[in-house]
Amino acid sequence: MVGLHEYLVVSGLLFLIGAVGVLTRTNGLILFMSLELMLNAVNLTFVALARYTGSLDGHVFVFLVTAVAAAEAAVGLAIFVSLFRLHRSVNVDQMNAMGE
Amino acid sequence: MFYALSGISVLAALWMITRRSPLSSALSLVVTFLGLAALYAMLDAQLLFVVQIWVYAGAVMVLVLFVIMLLNLREEESRMAAASWGRFALCGILALGLAWKAFGVLAGVRGIAPPVSSEFGGVASVAEILFTRYLVQFQLVGLLLLAVVVGVVVLAKRAR
User: What is the pLDDT of residues B13-71, one digit of tens each?
Assistant: First the structure.
C-alpha cells in the first residue's frame, strides 16, 4: 500500500498547479477552474489523512467543502455571465473599473 | 496503480492551466477530477468517490462547459500581460515556500494506514457522524444553498 507521503505530495503538486493557474491566467473561467482545482487538492489531503488516522471527520469536511464549492460555482458562473453581458469579455485584467 | 492515477491527475491539471482555449481546459479538468475520484476509492472513501463524480465531474463541470458554450468563448484575447514576470516570480516564491514547508512536515509523517472496518467511508458511517457531531454545519450548508439559489435568481434577473 502506498504511504501517506505520496498522497500529500500529489495534493501539494495539485495545489501548486492551481495556484500558478490563478496567478498567471487572465481568462476568468480558467481562473475559476484553477480555484476548483485548489479546493480539490485540499480535499485529497483531507481524505488521505482521514484514512491514515482512521477517523471519518475528514470525510465530513470534504462533503461540506464539496457543497460549498458547488454553491460557489453557481454564483461565480452567474457573475461571469453578467460580466460578459456588460463587457463582452471574461478577461479579468480588463476589469479595473474600481481602480480608475 | 496509485502512480498511474496521480500522474494522470497532475498531467491533466498541468494541461488545464497551459491551454489557451477554455474548452480544452475544462475537459482536462474533468480528467483530473475523475483521477481524484479514483484516488478517493483507493483510500476507502466510497461515498466521496460517488460525490466527486456526481458533483464535481458531473454538475460543476457541466455548468462550466455550459457557460463556456453559452458565451461562445474563443481563444484568450490577450496573451500574458506586461506585468506577468512579477506573477511568475510570485509563483516561484510560492513553490519554494511550499517545498520548504513540505519537507519539514513530511519528515515527521509516518505512513502506515491502520486497518479499518469494511464500513469505513460508506454512506451509513459518514451519515452517522454528519448527522450527529456535525449537524450544525450541515444545517448551515443547507442555509448557504438556499441563499445561493436566491442570489443566482437575483443575478440572473437583474442582468437584463
Answer: 999 888 888 888 999 999 999 999 999 998 888 899 999 999 988 899 999 998 888 88
All residues at 6 or more sequence positions from B141 whose CB lies less than 8 Å from its CB, including other chains: A64, A67, A68
Probe site for chain A from B30, B46, B71, B145 (most A CB atoms < 10 A): B71
**pTM (2 decimals)?**
0.87
CA distance B77 to B135: 47
Note whether B12 and B35 are within 8 A (CB).
Answer: yes
Q: Is the dihedral of CA B126, B131, B135, B141 positive or negative?
A: positive
> Distance between CA B94 and CA B57 in Å, rounded?
28
Task: Count CB atoms within 10 A of the CB of residue A9.
Answer: 14
Measured between beta carbons, the chain A residues lying within 8 angstroms of B154 are: none
Q: Which residue has the cell 498567471?
A: A24
Cα distance from N-terminal residue to C-terminal residue, chain A: 56
Length of chain B: 160
